[in-house]
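Standup notes, protein team

Yesterday: finished cleaning the Reyranella soli set.
Today: sn-glycerol-3-phosphate transport system permease protein UgpA structure.
Blockers: none.

Input for sn-glycerol-3-phosphate transport system permease protein UgpA:
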Amino acid sequence: MEKRVTFNERWLPYLLVAPQIVITLVFFFWPSGEAIWQSVLVEDAFGGNSKFVWFENFSHLFSDPNYFASARLTLVFSALVASLGLAASLLLAVMADRVIRGASAYKTILVWPYAVAPAVAGVLWGFLFNPSVGVVAWALSVIGIEFNYVINGNQALLLIVLAAVWNQISYNFLFFLAGLQSIPKSLIEAAAIDGAGPGRRFWDIVFPLLSPTGFFLLVINIIYAFFGTFGIVGSLTQGGPGQSTNILVWKVYNDGFRGQDLGGSSAQSVILMAVVILLTFVQFRFIERRVHY
C-alpha cells in the first residue's frame, strides 16, 4: 500500500522549500544574471562608466590563442582529476570495506582530508614539494629526481592535480563505501560458490551495481575540477609558471580582478558555466544509458 505525505495547510510545502529557493536565487541565479549582463559591457576599473558592446567581449575571447590554450589545459586537468580521483577512491573503498581489524580507524582517517579547505590543501602540498624546504622534494632529490614546480610547468600541473585529487578523494570514498555496503552480500557469496574469483566478482557484480554511484560522482568531480580547484591553484601556483596551470576558473579571476577586464572576465565565466552545463547534459543524455539502476 502506497503511503503519501499530506499537508493540512496548503502554504506549508512552499514554506519548507522557501529557504532553498531563496539561497538558489541569491547565490546562483542573481550572480549568473549579473555575469551575463556584464559580459556584454565594457567597464572601467571602478565600474563608473560602462558601454554596451553586444558580443564584442566574446569575439575577443574566441580570437585569443591564450584563452584556447587555457581551455585545453582545463579539459586535460579535469580529465586527470576526475579519472584519478574516482579510481583511487574506489580502490580505497574496496579495501576499507573488507572485514579487518581497525577498519573503522582506517575509514575515519580516509575521511579527514575532506575537512581541509582547497586553499589549505594547496599550501600543504606546496610545503611538501617546496624545492628548498619540502620533505618530499628532498626525498625525490636523494633518488635523483629534481622536482621544482616553481620553474617546471609540467611538474606544477602534476602537483595541482595531485592536490586536487587528494582534497576530493574523501568525498568519493564516502559514496563508494556506502554503495559497496548496500550491495547484497548474498549475490557475492553466490558468485563465489559458483567458482567466480575476486576479480570476476568485482567486474561482473560489484562494479555494475556501483554504476549509479559512479555516475553521480563523475558529474560531481567534473564540476569540482572546473570550479572547486580555484583555491588550490591560487595558493599553490597562481597559474604559473608561465601559463602552465592557468585553468579557466583562475583565468576568470586573474583577468577580472588583476587585469581589471571586467567585461572579458564576465564573458569567460558565462562560457565556463555554459560548458559545464553542456558537459552535465551530455553525461546525463548518453553516459547514463550505461548505468544499471
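Follow-up from PR in the comments: The chain has one domain: 64-290.
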